[in-house]
Write a structure and sequence with these properties.
It is a single chain. By secondary structure, the protein is of the alpha/beta class. It has a single domain, classed as Alpha-Beta Barrel (TIM Barrel). The protein has 13 helices and 10 strands. The strands form 2 sheets. An 8-stranded parallel sheet has the order 1-10-9-8-5-4-3-2. A two-stranded antiparallel ribbon has the order 6-7. Strand 9, helix 9 and strand 10 form a beta-alpha-beta unit. InterPro entries: Aldolase_TIM (IPR013785), HMGL (IPR043594), PYR_CT (IPR000891).
């Protein structure tokens, strides 16, 4: 089987937007520097597979994320496809300046739902982090940019334990009130469960302007995504091949794999606009360049090994 048998489940969205984070969140934790030409081809392959949102890079200081030091060069190499959005992450006003200089049309900012992670990742308190975001969002909007907001540690923090739902809602609403068009709720260390997901979305008053970003540390990413879909969410972050993590949280493992998500969505009769075979081919190609197999279960089942051999599953067929 190369595609799942589709059985439509009542109450799910007709279509889901997969917000692809592989080129940024996926590659940022790679220890070996990936050549900028490989990154540009990665982005091109993702667009060819049907992606309409590809978070391409980040204007973070190279000291903190050396892998993304080539952000400006990469943007110069990417051939933009009409109808495809290419947002970039910006950590502060200096990052925004660089984004504006390079003609970026959409940015994302990254906040914390917990005190400890805000101090460790942003060098700010939970309350004072907004002083950093407010001028970035305001200036971006003044310049006609769309602004997305991420909130990390929405379900649990490795230093503080479970994150209070009300605390996440307070942080998220402040970002939405600033003018962010979308809020991505991040399970940075992958400890969330479906009931927790449903409760958090409900605490926001529903799914309007919400997206979800799950990591698969405890094998809950797909279950949590399904819970979010049933609650009405229509935007799901994922990383091709399941690559990535968080460089500031040791317990954060890989992102939800785009291929695994698409297999589930297509099996539920939910449209994505994505070609699964092309995604698997891209992940296999990328795995060969990273020197290790993709952690995606769908890629393992349908793809070739990074050395060029065919998976046992395909041989038996």
């Amino acid at each position: 089987m190369r595609e799942p048998y589709a059985v439509r489940e009542a109450g799910l969205p007709d279509r889901v937007t997969v917000y692809e984070v592989g080129p940024r969140d996926g590659l940022q934790n790679e220890k070996a520097v990936v050549p900028v030409e490989v990154k540009a081809e990665f982005v091109a392959r993702l667009a060819a597979a049907g992606h309409r949102v590809i978070e391409t890079t980040s204007f973070v200081h190279p000291k903190w994320v050396p892998q993304l030091a080539d952000a400006a060069e990469l943007l110069g190499l990417v051939e933009k496809v009409p109808g495809v959005r290419y947002p970039v992450l910006v950590p502060n006003e200096r990052g925004l300046d660089r984004a504006l200089e390079h003609g970026v049309e959409e940015i994302a900012v990254f906040a914390s739902a917990t005190e400890t992670f805000a101090r460790r990742n942003l060098n700010r308190t939970l309350a004072s982090q907004f002083e950093m975001f407010e001028p970035v969002v305001a200036r971006a909007l003044e310049n006609g940019l769309r602004v997305r907001a991420y909130v990390s540690m929405c379900f649990g923090d490795p230093w503080e334990g479970p994150t209070p739902v009300g605390q996440v809602v307070e942080v998220g609403r402040r970002l939405l009130d600033m003018g962010c068009f979308e809020l991505s709720l991040g399970d940075t260390i992958g400890v969330g469960t479906p009931g927790h997901v449903t409760a958090l979305i409900g605490a926001f008053g529903g799914p309007s302007r919400l997206a979800v970003h799950f990591h698969d540390t405890y094998g809950q990413a797909l279950a949590n995504t399904l819970a979010a879909l049933r609650a009405g969410v229509t935007v799901v972050d994922a990383s091709t091949g399941g690559i990535g993590g968080c460089p500031y949280a040791d317990s954060a493992t890989g992102n939800l794999a785009t291929e695994d998500l698409v297999w589930m969505l297509h099996g539920l009769g939910v449209e994505t606009g994505l070609d699964l075979a092309s995604l698997v081919e891209t992940s296999t190609w990328l795995a060969a360049r990273l020197g290790r197999p993709s952690p995606s279960r769908v890629v393992q089942a349908l793809g070739e090994t990074p050395t060029g051999g065919t998976a046992d599953h395909d041989v038996k067929e």
